[in-house]
Amino acid sequence: MSFLFLYLILPAIKGIVILSIILFLVAYATFIERRVLAFMQARLGPNLAGPEGILQPIADGVKLLFKEDLVPSRAQRFLHLLAPVLILVPALVIFGLVPFGEAGNLFGLLKEPITLYITDVNVALLLVIGFASLGVYGLILGGWSSNSKYSFIGALRSAAQVVSYEVPQVISLASVLILSGSLSLVKIVQAQKEMGLWFIFPGFIAFFIYIVCGIAETNRLPFDLPEAESELVAGYHTEYSGMKFAFFFMGEYANMIVVSSVATVVFLGGWLPPFPSLSIWQHLPDLPLVWFFGKVLAFLFLYIWLRATFPRYRFDQLMDLAWKWLLPLSILNLVIIGLVKWGIK
Amino acid sequence: MLEIRELELNMGPQHPATHGVLRLILKVDGERIIDAKPVIGYLHRGTEKLFENQTYPMNVPHTDRLDYIAAATNNHAYCGAVEKLLGVEVPRKAKFIRVILDELQRISSHLVWLATHALDIGAMTPFFYTFRERELILDLFEEYCGARLTLNCMTIGGVPEDLPEGWIEKLQNFIQIFEEKIWDYENLLTDNRIWKKRTIGVGVISPEDAINYGLTGPPLRGSGIKYDVRRALPYEVYPELDFEIPIGKNGDTYDRYLVRMEEMRQSIRILKQCIEKMPKEGEIQAKGLKFIKPKPAEVYFSVEAPKGELGFHIISDGSPKPYRVRVRPPSFINLQALPHMVKGHLIADVVAVIGTLDIVLGEIDR
Amino acid sequence: MSEKKGQPEYQSALENSFVLKLKEKFKEEILDAKTYSSELTIWISKEILIPVCKDLWEDGFIYLVDIMGIHYPQREKKFELSYILHNFKNNERLRLKVEVKEGEPVPSLTEIWKGANWLEREIFDMFGVQFSNHPNLERILMWEGFQGHPLRKDFPLKGIDTGAAIYPDVYPEGVKPPKGGENA
After folding, report:
1. How many Å apart are CA B76 and CA B312, to the nearest integer?
2. Any residues with CB less than 8 A from the CB of C96 and at least 6 apart, and which?
3. Collapsing DSSP states into helix, strand and coil, what is residue A213?
4. Handedness of CA C25, C31, C36, C39 (dihedral sign)
5. What are A114's strand-pairing partners?
6. Chains in contact with chain A (at least 3 beta-carbon pairs closer than 8 A)
7. Residue C169 pLDDT level (bands cut at 50, 70, 90)
8. Vertex C58: Cα angle to B204 and C16 (nearest 5)
């Protein structure tokens, strides 16, 4: 019983629960974005479906689900179908690795505390990076298989963009590895607890680079060139409609949540409160999930805020930024962090 | 050897950034533009042909449909041309009302330009801010003449209505609001690094080329030529008014942006002076224009429309209908410089340049 | 109201110093000059259009405002082109007028003003006036393959049946889609 329970049933239950939470969050991230953006832009946003428009994501989902599934006549049918799946699934898989908390009894719901993550893999960070970069295949296949010039240019742009921004992103994450000495996401958080300091403080430059690259990888403003509406109509998903479009859409938001979650775990101490070594936290209730999702939501807000503020970069400027500024900066940061660590030892 | 050929990208006529039904055939090498060919005519309605078959006053509403973003200046140019043909002097109060409507129209047109231009470059928020203020202008128009977009707010020889009671107060209220809100747009864009990167050095046109292509309006002034019909060939009460003609230096998209922003401020200045100087009482319509039947003659009259010099070229033949009416549409002539301005730039710059030229297809295709 | 007092009269401008200067150079190729409502109009023959424009360009008329085509079906020279030039130095304007017969080409001004390109194309499109040495003389507002020139006086206001099928053949038996401008 215990083996079966521990390694099969419990992870399955956790997986289903987390998947539903994430999908719920994805759906409501769109809603939050529309309302917050509307607030920033002096308009109302969707407020008619349900009280304050709370049912809007469901209405959208139902609408997209019932739409006709159109495939351009000269498209590669199979790849056209595969691309949206390739974008959404890797993003969801990553949540199998993200720790939401160390151990907890879910606000007293359970008698015995359980770990608030599905698995703790030794090489979790590598896996996260790997799965995150799988998403680019979805973009390229989507753009290429639709057999449209706009989609194609969008796909080329996104391929170049994602590949370029991965380099400084991974290097910036490497500086965290120096600090924590482990690739396991749980151990990284624990290292922050031991240090009594979130890694954002020693690794602020790395954090900044990670966020910039994360925004670029999720194709959000100011880096949303692959789907630049005014130039490429909708970029790689120009020819998609109905549920397949919804998959792209959900993929984008799921990726945003992935980037936010990883940043939360790696730089902002995951489920830890600020300065976890302070004695004041021992007198307050331990709320790992609240801390975790609070930070993720703060990141989502940052995304929206940026979208409301900035114009879009041009393609060459985007590449300049990645290769001429972020890459040298991240390498420099890596060297500095290494020296600091060596000095401490 | 593999065969190398350029990608031909058909942009429009149904495209989010071509401001209507402009079609561009782009030859691109990767993202770089080798050649651009505008294809126009999708909105051609034969307005000039219609003009020839209607009497002079009947044509005024048709001019609304040319540059539908700025109907008042179209009315003004047409009515001014007929008045010049007839040698009619417009009453002083009507002149002031016309100038007020023109300048309000200029602000509203520039607001639409700013909204779409910023949206094309990716800044979404200015769109909603500018349309919020444009709404106030449209409300003012609505109260004056009943229409919001296709105004038909001028008649040959004057204006159809006196200003309604309390309208001036509402205008003053708008001026007060707008002077404050214009900083909202500037804060978002003027010093924004990305905005500067996207606009400085993009779509440069030298003053010589600008004149050679016949550009007028902000695209010409952005290149540093101080030419504004309001000053060069003054009409109505503009000589009495104190305002400046902003000019740029480099002739790029950013300079044209600054020029238009400054023009809005100058329009506010003009509006303030008009409120002050406008006579309280007076005629608004010249006498003796019940039946217009001019002797054979040919005139050209132009006004400074928001997009540039808008001219009407009228030939009369002694009948109540004009023999020929030609519109000199600023957008049509400005658009001609587009291939020159985008050559060698990237696809993303095409939309920036289309935005900065501020074209309206209703006027281009007529 | 045609006999209204206010309407200005055409006045001869042959004694205008500016016209005299041109006349000295081009002799009787300068056909006439008049002012109306302080607008100077000079009639010239089309042979000297390019040299006159080049001369005027040297004089400071560096900006071509507009070109208008006019159709006079009764005249022998059926088409008239009206060029407006602007001088930035003293904000002076001038109108040149050229008359052409049907089928006669007019020299294109694109070698002096690039902006003349589309203006001339539009006149070609609307009136069928040919321009020699034009780099790209094709229709601009009407579509390629359109028959006729809409702004000619003999072109029906209703339009012509271009043969383009706007409606697909989905009409029931015996019902035809409405034909545009058949007998106009």
Report:
1. 10
2. C41, C42, C44, C49, C52, C53, C82, C83, C85
3. helix
4. negative
5. A104
6. B
7. low
8. 130
Q: Give me B137's structure tokens.
A: 């202008």
Residue C160 at interface with chain B, using a CB cutoff of 8 Å: no
Q: What percent of chain B has pLDDT over 90?
A: 3
According to DSSP H, which parts of chain B are helical?
47-52, 60-64, 71-86, 92-121, 125-145, 167-189, 193-199, 207-212, 218-222, 229-232, 253-277, 330-335, 338-342, 347-357, 361-365
CA gap C81, C71 in Å, rounded: 9
Q: Which residue, among A151, A310, A320, A325, would best test binding to B if mutated, counting the most B CBs under 10 Å from its CB?
A: A310
Question: What local confidence, expressed as pLDDT, does residue C3 receive?
Answer: 43
Q: Are A226 and A158 in contact (CB under 8 A)?
A: yes
Residues composing chain B: 366
Q: What DSSP state is assigned to residue A268? A: S
Query: Cα separation of C22 and A193, whole Å?
Result: 92
What is the model's pLDDT at position B184?
A: 82
Closest residue by Cα to residue B73 from B277, B246, B302:
B302
> DSSP characters for A110-157?
SSS-EEESS---TTHHHHHHHHHHHHHHHHHHHHHHTT-HHHHHHHHH
Which of A309-323, B7-21, B98-112, B319-333 comes out lowest in average pLDDT? B7-21
C66 touches chain B (CB under 8 A): yes
CB B301 within 8 A of CB B229: no
Band of the pLDDT at C1, cuts 50, 70, 90? very low
Q: In the structure, do chain C and chain A come into contact, i.e. share 3 or more CB pairs under 8 Å?
A: no
Map residue C71 onto helix, strand or coil.
strand
The whole-angstrom distance between B72's CA and the closest CA on chain C is 22
Residue of C59, C58, C32 whose CA lies nearest to C45: C32
The span from the CA of A270 to the CA of B117, in Å, is 41
Crossing angle of helices A288-309 and A204-217, rounded to 10°? 70
- Interacting residues of B344 by C-beta distance below 8 A, sequence separation 6+: B32, B33
Q: Give per-residue pLDDT as tens, A215-261.
A: 888 877 787 776 666 677 777 777 888 788 888 888 888 888 888 88
When pLDDT is averaged across residues B276-300 and rounded to a whole number, the result is 83
C106, C83 in Cβ contact below 8 A?
A: no
- Tokens 């979650």 belong to A261
List CB contacts of A109: < 8 A, sequence separation 6 or more. none
> Between the CA of residue A95 and those of A15, A134, B153, what are the distances in Å?
9, 15, 62
| Residue of B44, B232, B291 lying closest to C141 (CB–CB) | B44
- The structure tokens listed for A294 are 């609070």
Rounded CA-CA distance A152/A162 in Å is 15
In this prediction the ipTM stands at 0.82
Which of C140, C147, C92, C94 shows the shortest CA–CA distance to C116? Answer: C140
Bridge-based pairing of strands C79-87 and C63-71 is: antiparallel
Give the pLDDT score at C167.
53
Query: What pLDDT is stored for residue C182 in this prediction?
Result: 46
Q: What's the gap in Å between the CA of C2 and the closest CA on chain B? A: 5
Residue B19: its chain A contacts at CB < 8 A? none
pLDDT band at B359 (very low <50, low <70, confident <90, very high): confident
CB contact under 8 A, A313 and B31: no
Contact B69, B310 (CB under 8 A): no
% of chain B residues with pLDDT over 70: 99
Query: Is C168 a residue whose pLDDT tops 60?
Result: no
Tell me which chain B residues have a C-beta less than 8 angstroms from the C-beta of A37: 124
Mean pLDDT, all residues of chain B = 86
Residues in chain A where the model's pLDDT stays below 50? none
